[in-house]
Design a protein that fits this description.
Blueprint: H1 14-24, E1 28-32, H2 39-53, E2 59-64, E3 80-84, H3 87-111, E4 120-125, H4 128-134, H5 136-149, E5 155-161, H6 171-174, E6 179-182, H7 188-195, H8 206-209, E7 212-218, E8 221-227, H9 232-243
Parallel strand pairs: 1-5, 1-6, 2-3, 2-4, 4-5
Antiparallel strand pairs: 6-7, 7-8
């Protein structure tokens, strides 16, 4: 039986864990900003925070990786039920997620409950803009359905985008993200579209300062955060643990 990563383990910084675990607990999260603004830092931080505390019985991943770079390290984890990096596989994975949604609602109806009491399924999308530019007609309806009804079924979308336009982050999809993390943007207009106010365009360039900042829009609340990077050796340690026989109890 698989068990969670040892509770005795200590993260390099409590701030790293708390921020990203908090984001992983939100129903749907949109992370967007210009190239080099810190999206990869946040995305990896959220995944690692989940791996710190959740076994594959409590959390599963559907990884959508059109650039074939950011999520490949997590491809063979026991948490990962689907990994897709090609158009056909991406559509198949989203359709599978819809089927899983329907299965979960059937369970809820049978039990007479309004919220699914089983594991969390994370649909993690590295680059939403790629889907919206190359296969929008096929993927947008699937993502809309997942976003609209996934909350009750414990299915959560975590999506990233470096292209902040209505064409690449459609309003009909964006409105389902109650939590939006706006990183450094190229223009004031991009910031306003993303978090409904200017400000992201004034955030410091991580390449010059060595650290990234973002504005977290959580419902009506707007908070500025420093985005901590999880050390590479700690990321590797977590991934190697879940891939090794050490995670098998007994």
């Amino acid at each position: 039986m698989l068990r969670v990563f040892p509770r005795s383990y200590r993260t390099p910084s409590g701030k790293i864990y708390r921020l990203y675990k908090d984001l992983s607990d939100r129903p749907h999260v949109l992370i967007a900003g210009a190239t080099g603004s810190g999206k990869s830092v946040v995305l990896n931080g959220i995944i690692q925070a989940v791996l710190m505390t959740e076994s594959p019985f409590n959390a599963q991943f559907v990884l959508i990786d059109p650039k074939k770079v950011e999520l490949i390290d997590y491809k063979d984890l026991p948490h990962t039920v689907r990994y897709a990096d090609e158009p056909g596989r991406i559509i198949d994975s989203l359709e599978w997620t819809i089927q899983e949604l329907d299965r979960r609602f059937s369970v809820m109806q049978r039990k007479g409950i309004k919220e699914y009491d089983g594991s969390v399924l994370y649909v993690i999308i590295d680059e939403l803009a790629d889907l919206m530019t190359s296969m929008k007609n096929e993927t947008l309806p699937l993502l809309q359905r997942i976003a609209q009804i996934g909350r009750a079924a414990n299915v959560r979308i975590i999506a990233c985008s470096q292209n902040i336009l209505a064409q690449t982050i459609p309003t009909v999809l964006k409105c389902n993200f109650s939590t939006i993390l706006g990183l450094r943007t190229a223009t004031k207009a991009h910031s306003r579209y993303l978090i409904d106010t200017a400000g992201c365009e004034t955030l410091p360039d991580p390449k010059r300062t060595g650290t990234a900042f973002g504005y977290l829009r959580d419902g009506a609340d707007l908070t500025k955060y420093q985005l901590y990077m999880w050390p590479t050796e700690e990321l590797r340690k977590l991934v190697d643990y879940w891939k090794s026989p050490a995670c098998i109890a007994g």
